[in-house]
Every structure is written in structure tokens, then in C-alpha cells.
């Protein structure tokens, strides 16, 4: 089961970290930008080739240090078809290096449409009797606003192909509370979503005690993180908001269970663009940033008596 | 302003209808499937070429009858890069025929990521000083779960490029009530989202009295439709759920204001696959289905004294 694979990889690499592959063309190293602009002009193709080179460099630099990467599809979609070619390359190249791929797509729709999204990112499509993959990731992030049937459509592929999903519960952004924090009866809306995640965790759970149906809970709301951790003991938390968004090692501690497991903390810009605040090349800077983040989190876990290794 | 353009086109064509371009390869006419499987084998490329041929046929058959089409991106995304080529073709070809394109993408994310989605579907990306479009639609559908900042990021492009968005308020699927119908204080969650839409409508509104910030409200919940219509007088309603999902002309009446305007009703399968229940070819069947739907809705509006033409 994918949750077991992720937990085992976290333990093996001593690294509850996911590297966010959110490249922005204007933030890439100048030599990569210049090279591809010279090759292909000011085109989407130039950008796509630059993103591919950059991402492969990042993946080469960090694949032995972390269990997973998380490409944010919006940063590829904005470059059109060519951008989606770079997105697919990021997924495929990361998988070729043994990494688990979290497709940060935040999809969700009515039943048959959700199934199409599941086909796109976790499953396969049938063409004349042949089963073919489109964008093959391992986990996908899912928006719950449409209710259970938008999630249910992903379950077949999750079971058939050993995939998983992270349901948005409490997001890291400033206005996340506008709907998510509203109280209905004794619970907030995000707690209601957490209840749905718990139901799925009853239905499917791995031998490590963790389910492939996880939850997105932002590092920027540490108190909510602690309460939600208690509420969803079997869910792996995908924790955005570390680094550029303001969260630090102390802020994410609450995302971990007493066994020191159950969370992967995402850092995107703080790793892939670490070179901007460093004298190192972008790959070495990314590697150094991952090692620092890993040490910071593991040290905090040890002090909190949540050592897992 | 895009809302004015849409309202004027509805009046001109006497047709508050949007045709959903949600092609499934297995549902396409046999001759189209066979031709492209023979040309390209059982590949994503064969599917993409088949979707392109099919969509262009549908658009040719209905472009003079309706103001807008709504490609649902999930049905393209599931066919990977090749599928996205067909998606872009649907947008581009529809625009070349003067149609307004609603990108049914249901996107939404934290600030900077939402901006990337806005670039992808409504705006442009900057490459070395040049502004380039990725997937150029007119409206995009937006999921509100992350709160206002995920919507705010679309506003610049909406103002700069005369675009618009439809915010998911009350969706047409069976479990839409699971979160959307929860009461917080005196209001449901979907009413809270409606309040946000109203705020945007205060900020931007066209000369026809309608704003480019609209709302998705399902035809499958007619009572909610009536209440929401009163609550959001300036919002254009995008109404899914007509036809295959069970809604009829009487069910959508509540989506219209007293002026007979303010709504566009979507029908996907009931139009594009009308040929399956007809002796006509797929184009003629789609045209006939649009004409019938138009007559049914306009007749219901007339009986309800909401005639707008």
C-alpha cells in the first residue's frame, strides 16, 4: 500500500520531507534561462525545456535525501501544452529516481468528472481495450467542497494501482479560515472534512497504521495541526507552509504522531530557489537546504521525544 | 465587460444556453473512432485527433445558436498532453467562431498558485518581456474552499483582459450538501460563498447590471436556486445539471431574474451525444437538441412571465 511505502521511505531516509517542484521561469538560474531563450526564443517551448533541465537538476541533487516530490501543476499549466510536457517530465523523472510523486492538483468535481481526474493523475484511460497512463503520479491532492462523491471516484484507482490522495482539510493560506473555520454545530468545516478523511481511513489502512487517504494541514496554523493530529491518527499529513510561507520546525511538530511519523512537510521555494541566498550553484544549494531542513525537523522531533529513527 | 458581452449574446441568439464539450472517446461516433484508431493506433494521439474532429463538428453545428461553450478540462486531462492539445483546440476553435469559452477547471489554490492558474486560463505569462497566452478561455470556474485570496488572484486578469469567473456556490452532485449545506449561524456554507460573490459583484459590474463574477448553482436543487437568485441579483448563474443529470426547463426557471436574464444553463451529454438517441448524424442531432432545449427554456420563461427577447 502506498502509505506503507511512504512511511518506510521516510524511516529509511530519516526524512519526513517533500520537495515542492514549483518552478517559476523568472526565478531559474540565469544560465539556464539564457541558454533556452537562445535555443528557442521567447517561447513556451524555451520555458518548458528550461523547467525540465532545472527540475532534473533538483531531483538529481535531492532524490537520495527525501521520499517524495510535489510538483504544483499550476506552475506548469500556466505555460500551456509545453508546460504540461515539463510537468509530465517532472513526474516521470522523479519516479525513475525512486521518488514518490505527489501531484498537487487540488482537483475535485462531480462523480464522472472526478473519475476523469482520477484517470488523469492516478489511474489509466482505456483506448480500444488498452489501458494507458496520462500523467502518472502517486498521490493527488483533492478539494473536498463537492463532498464525498468527488473523493469516492478516486478510490478504485487508489486500490487498483496502489495510489493515494491528500484531502484539503485546513490550508496554509491567510484566508483559509473564511470557510474552513466556520462553525457548524460543535465543529468547524475543516473538522467536518477531517471526519470524512477518518471514514476513508477506516475503509483503507496499511500495515504501518497509516492510510493512503491523507490530509493537507498547513504549518501556518500550529494549534489546529495539533487538534487535527489527534482527530485523524491514521492519516498522513501533507504539511505546506514551511519556509517561504513562514512555518518552521517548531510549527510542524504538531503534525507528527507520538511515533514521530505520520507527516511529510513540504518546502518548495526554500529548497529549489535556495541558491538565491547562497554562494552555491542551485543544485548544491538545494541539497544543502534539504539537509538543513531535515536536521532541523529531526532535532525538533528528538527534543519533543518523537524520534522515529 | 465580459458579462455584458455574454448577456448581449444571450439576447441576440435568444438562447441562455452553454454547450458542455465533455467528450468521452468511447461515446464518440464509431466512424470517428475507427478512422483515428486506424490512423494512429490505440494511442493518446488517436484520441486527441478524434476529440478535435468531434468538437469542431459540434461547434460548427451549434455556434450560431448559443452564446458559449464549456469544455470540462478533466475529460481532456485524462488523455495527457495529447488530451490537453484537444482541450486547447476546443477553446481556440470556439473562439474563432465567436463563442464565449467557459473553462470548467474548478481551480483554486493559495495566492501565488492561484495567480498561476489565472495566467493559465484567463491571463498571460511573461517570457523574457513578452506576454504569451497558455490556454485562453473567457470564464474559468473556481472552487472557493481556500477562501477569498484564491479568488482575488484572478481579479487582475479579469479586469485587464475582460475575463470572468464562476465561483462554485451550490453544485449539482448528490453529495454537494455534505459541506455546502452545513449551517453556520443563520446561513449555510453555500450562502456564505454567495456572500463572497456578492462582495465581488459590488466591486465589478457591467452596464447590463451583471458582473463578470458569477456563480455555479446546480439545476438539481431548484429551491436553493430560487433563494440564491434573490441573494445574488448581479451574478450570472452557470447552471449545470440539465439533461443527463436530471434537471429540466421547469427546474432552471429559478435561476433567472425577473428580466428573464442572469443565467446560462449547461447541457453536455444531452447535446453532444444526442445522436445516440436519434437517427440523425451527431452534428444534426446536437443542433436539434440545442433547438429543443432553447425552445423548452424560452417557453418556460414566457409562461413564467420572464420573457427577455
TrEMBL record, chains A, B:
The active site is at 106 (proton donor). Its EC number is 4.1.1.23. It catalyses: orotidine 5'-phosphate + H(+) = UMP + CO2. Belongs to the OMP decarboxylase family. Type 2 subfamily. Pathway: Pyrimidine metabolism; UMP biosynthesis via de novo pathway; UMP from orotate: step 2/2. It holds the Pfam family OMPdecase. SUPFAM superfamilies: Ribulose-phoshate binding barrel. The keyword Lyase applies. The gene is pyrF. It is an enzyme of class 4 (lyase). Keywords: Decarboxylase, Lyase, Pyrimidine biosynthesis. GO terms for molecular function: orotidine-5'-phosphate decarboxylase activity. This is Orotidine 5'-phosphate decarboxylase.
